[in-house]
Amino acid sequence: MARLTWHGHATFTLETDTGKRVMFDPFLNDNPAADIQASAVADLDYILCSHGHSDHFADAISLAKRTHAMLVGTFELVAFAQSRGVHRGHGMNVGGGHRFDFGYVKLTPALHTGTIAGDDTGRYTSTPVGFWVDLGGKRLYHCGDSALTMDMQLLRGQVDVALLPIGDNFTMGPADAVRAVEFIQPRVVIPMHYNTWDLIAQDPQAFRAAVGDLAQVVILEPGGYYDF
Ligand code: NI
Ligand code: MN
Fold first, then answer.
1. Which residues lie at CB < 5 A from ion ligand 2?
2. Residue 109 three-state SS
3. pLDDT tens string 90-132
4. Looking at the DSSP assignment, which residues form a beta bridge with residue 163?
5. Within 10 Å of residue 190's Cβ, how many Cβ atoms?
6. Domain extent listing, the chain
7. CA dihedral defined by 201, 57, 46, 32, rounded to 10 degrees?
8. Higher model confidence: residue 122 or residue 28?
């Protein structure tokens, strides 16, 4: 059984069948919706960052240094983290996949913008991505901060659990997220990137109603988890 715990916004911890701990987009200390502070994270094996905006990357460097987790993301994002003292990094690029000891990870296109929080020089460009993770037959898609794209149709039939933003303003909103569900046809969808601030306030129950029979919508509270 794999367990996926939501920490608010786009931050999740995945605990795999084999006991590996993988955190997506760590944003805890400055995240008003977070259930925990970064100091409460005891051990991590991997940190996957979709892009360099602070609401996805703010705690990545400090957590990678303290836990010795391997940071995975685009080549430039990982290079920036390594320039700030992160020792274990694995740079990739859009469309590329790599088999790690917890599963196979592929970077998927995400339509969004990108600077890297903390990069005062602007040397490290940041192309946002999402993550497609195959845990040996259980396939997870963390969409990152993407808009709705036609590319999402390429994931049809290849995703069991989809983590989709519904907040609007910075990412796709609920109506486009429903269309993403139509494109991807996951078994389960978990909404994210909403209710962190008033600007991205949404009603997840309304999203569930709009998805209807297309997929099972699992609504988590920060600290809540889904086993699959
Ligand atoms: Ni962003
Ligand atoms: Mn964001």
1. 55, 145
2. strand
3. 999 999 999 999 999 999 999 999 899 999 888 888 899 999 9
4. 142, 190
5. 23
6. 3-220
7. -40
8. 28
Map tokens 């699992």 to a residue.
218
3-220 maps to CATH 3.20.20.150: no
CA of 54 to the centre of ligand 2 (A): 8
Give 54-104 pLDDT, tens digit per residue.
999 999 999 999 999 999 999 999 999 999 999 999 999 999 999 999 999
CA distances from 187 to 10, 93, 156, 163 (A): 20, 27, 11, 11
Q: How far is the CA of 20 from the centre of ligand 1 (A)?
A: 26
- CB 108 within 8 Å of CB 96: no
Rounded CA separation 175/15 (Å):
30
d(Cα 60, Cα 71) in Å, to the nearest integer? 8
Residue 164's beta-bridge partner residues? 191
Q: What is the pLDDT of residues 187-215, one digit of tens each?
A: 999 999 999 999 999 999 999 999 999 99
**227 forms bridges with which residues in the sheet?**
3
**CA 198, CA 61: separation in Å to the nearest integer?**
27
How remote is the CA of residue 55 from the centroid of ligand 2, in Å?
5
Tokens found for residue 128: 């946002």
- String of b and e for 20-56 (b: at least 16 CB within 10 Å)? bbbbbbbbbeebebbbbebeebeebbbbbbbbbbebb
Kindly give the distance from the C-alpha atom of residue 151 to the centroid of ligand 2, in angstroms, as a whole number. Answer: 20
